[in-house]
């Protein structure tokens, strides 16, 4: 049993199979929860939550754990984080952001809320606010945080002064995203 849980891919596949079994099991209530016959909505809603947890979970990991802990990490151990852990976490972080936005837009379309971004319909305004906050956050991930992290981590060439400036810029925008995530989550979880 322990060997199985040592294999992340096996665990993910088993989780996916279990989720599919729950969805297709006649008495699970899944069909009732997403609306009779709207399996696409259920699928994209599930994917939206999965990718959103990945994105925001890593945002909180960076801000609650990695950034505050790095000053106390001995100098000889810091490359373990900056060369191995952070680049991998940033990969899932930025793609989590991209797929959260993509699946969120699909869910909005399937709900008929694609015009919520206009913020002119009071019944959809809250989800529209959440969508705008998520779009701003995703923009920050791809066009501010990631380019600066590439310099800060040495993924692209930069002198020490540029690395330090880039690390600070990435941190500030990561903190902006942490701030925006709180009202974004309020809007996203209270729409319906």
UniProtKB/TrEMBL annotation:
The keyword Transmembrane applies. It holds the Pfam family Urate_ox_N. The chain crosses the membrane at residues 7-25, 45-62, 91-111, 126-145. InterPro entries: Urate_ox_N. It comes from the Bacteria. The keyword Kinase does not apply. Keywords: Membrane, Transmembrane, Transmembrane helix. Residues 127-192 form the Urate oxidase N-terminal domain. This is Urate hydroxylase PuuD.
């Amino acid at each position: 049993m322990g060997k199985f849980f040592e294999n992340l891919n096996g665990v993910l596949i088993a989780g996916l199979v279990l989720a599919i079994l729950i969805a297709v099991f006649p008495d699970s209530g899944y069909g009732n929860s997403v609306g009779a016959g709207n399996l696409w909505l259920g699928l994209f809603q599930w994917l939206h939550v999965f990718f959103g947890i990945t994105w925001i979970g890593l945002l909180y990991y960076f801000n609650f754990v990695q950034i505050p802990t790095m000053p106390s990490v001995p100098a000889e151990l810091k490359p373990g984080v900056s060369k191995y852990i952070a680049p991998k976490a940033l990969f899932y972080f930025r793609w989590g952001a991209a797929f959260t936005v993509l699946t969120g837009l699909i869910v909005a379309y399937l709900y008929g809320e694609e015009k919520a971004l206009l913020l002119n319909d009071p019944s959809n305004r809250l989800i529209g606010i959440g969508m705008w906050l998520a779009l701003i956050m995703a923009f920050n991930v791809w066009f501010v945080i990631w380019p600066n992290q590439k310099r800060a981590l040495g993924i692209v060439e930069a002198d020490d002064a540029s690395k330090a400036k880039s690390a600070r810029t990435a941190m500030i925008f990561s903190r902006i995203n942490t701030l925006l995530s709180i009202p974004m989550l309020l809007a996203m979880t209270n729409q319906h």
